[in-house]
């Protein structure tokens, strides 16, 4: 399958990163969000990232301008009519995602593949909202997208081999490493990572150590690049809570119950780095 135009839904931290790597790899990108101001915010992060790459001589000014020139703005999901592949990276909520996929299914050309960057939601259920479940797939990028090598590729129950292979090939053109996983809650990445983060939050909640001490133990003791509380802030505490809830509900096992402190922070609007405050305070 010949993929030339990629539409990305959601211009937040993940959608922006996905749009950036696709544009840098030569794809035409349609970046979609609910409001124009979110697109402006997303595009300014992309430009900042590219300027940093130029200043480090990892990208030329011409390549930067050409990549930015390949990204067009959209606030209308019907713009999917021009896409060969849509990658959805809106909020981690099944009702919102199924609504988006229903609309995309109506708007996108027959040949188009519809992918979701969901962290944990069942691809099979998202696919069931469309009349083309065989062309729906999970494409789970890691944060920060321009830096991290992995893309987990998740097959829904109906995903065809042809669609899987097209997405595997496309992922390689982004200079990323695809890894195939089956459709279970949290896939592999978040089934392992998120209970560790949740346990770190319990450790703080129970007063076992300070947030700095918990992060230091994992950074210096286990060589993690970030401590789990710093990483939770970086991912977004709302996203961490959604993922724990999906694991809890999906497996029906109390070992996945979200820590009350995580719920409290999300209720307070302390969502981490993106809102300026989570476990830590950001300028
Ligand atoms: C929740 C999910 O569903 C799945 C997930 O994504 S879970 C999250 C997975 N991600 C992680 O675990 C990230 C863990 N953290 C790290 O790997 C590192 O701390 C980090 C890569 C984020 C930063 O690394 P660092 O060495 O501390 O910082 P720094 O030296 O500033 O950055 C290293 C490189 O990354 C780039 N970078 C850092 N943050 C970036 C960002 N947000 N966007 C783009 N590029 C970024 C820097 O420009 C730098 O690039 P060069 O090598 O070209 O100079
Ligand atoms: N954060 C992470 O580390 C990772 C997240 N993911 C997944 O990626 C997805 C996005 O996460 P992330 O980028 O962190 O979240 P953000 O909150 O940074 O961005 C989500 C963006 O999607 C927009 N949005 C919400 N609803 C819609 C809609 N109906 N149509 C179009 N855009 C919409 C939001 O707008 P508004 O601001 O108005 O809400 C926001 O701009 C989630 O499914 C998440 O689980 C996957 C890998 C890693």
From TrEMBL:
EC number: 1.1.1.157
MF (Gene Ontology): 3-hydroxybutyryl-CoA dehydrogenase activity; NAD+ binding
Domain 3-hydroxyacyl-CoA dehydrogenase C-terminal: 186-282
Source taxon at top rank: Bacteria
Residues reported in the UniProt entry to bind NAD(+): 10-15, 33, 92, 97, 119, 143, 274
Pfam families: 3HCDH, 3HCDH_N
GO biological process, one term: butyrate metabolic process
InterPro entries: 3-OHacyl-CoA_DH, 3-OHacyl-CoA_DH_CS, 3-OHacyl-CoA_DH_NAD-bd, 3HC_DH_C, 6-PGluconate_DH-like_C_sf, 6PGD_dom2, NAD(P)-bd_dom_sf
Pathway the protein takes part in: Lipid metabolism; butanoate metabolism
Residues under site feature: Important for catalytic activity: 140
Domain 3-hydroxyacyl-CoA dehydrogenase NAD binding span(s) in chain numbering: 5-183
Keywords assigned by UniProt, alphabetized: NAD, Oxidoreductase
Protein family per UniProt: Belongs to the 3-hydroxyacyl-CoA dehydrogenase family.
Protein name: 3-hydroxybutyryl-CoA dehydrogenase
Species in which this protein is naturally found: Jeotgalibacillus salarius
């Amino acid at each position: 399958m010949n993929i030339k135009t990629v539409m990305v839904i959601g211009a937040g931290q993940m959608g922006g990163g996905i749009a950036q790597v696709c544009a840098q790899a030569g794809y035409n990108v349609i970046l979609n969000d609910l409001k124009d101001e979110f697109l402006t915010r997303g595009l300014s992060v992309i430009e900042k990232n590219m300027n940093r790459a130029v200043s480090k001589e990892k990208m030329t000014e011409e390549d930067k301008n050409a990549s930015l020139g390949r990204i067009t703005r959209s606030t209308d999901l019907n713009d999917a009519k021009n896409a060969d592949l849509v990658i959805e990276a809106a909020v981690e909520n099944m009702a919102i995602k199924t609504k988006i996929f229903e609309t995309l299914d109506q708007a996108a050309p027959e040949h188009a593949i519809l992918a979701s960057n969901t962290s944990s939601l069942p691809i099979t259920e998202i696919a069931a909202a469309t009349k083309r479940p065989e062309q729906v797939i999970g494409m789970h990028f890691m944060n920060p997208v321009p830096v991290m090598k992995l893309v987990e590729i998740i097959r829904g129950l109906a995903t065809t081999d042809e669609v899987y292979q097209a997405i595997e090939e496309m992922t390689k053109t982004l200079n990323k490493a695809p890894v195939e996983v089956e459709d279970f809650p949290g896939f592999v990445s978040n089934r392992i990572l998120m209970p560790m983060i949740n346990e770190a939050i319990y450790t703080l909640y129970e007063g076992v150590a300070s947030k700095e001490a918990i992060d230091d133990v994992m950074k210096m003791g286990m060589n993690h690049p970030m401590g789990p509380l710093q990483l939770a802030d970086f991912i977004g505490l709302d996203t961490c809570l959604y993922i724990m809830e999906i694991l809890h509900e999906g497996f029906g096992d109390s070992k996945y119950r979200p820590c009350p402190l995580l719920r409290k922070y999300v209720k307070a609007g302390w969502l981490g780095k993106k809102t300026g405050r989570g476990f830590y305070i950001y300028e």
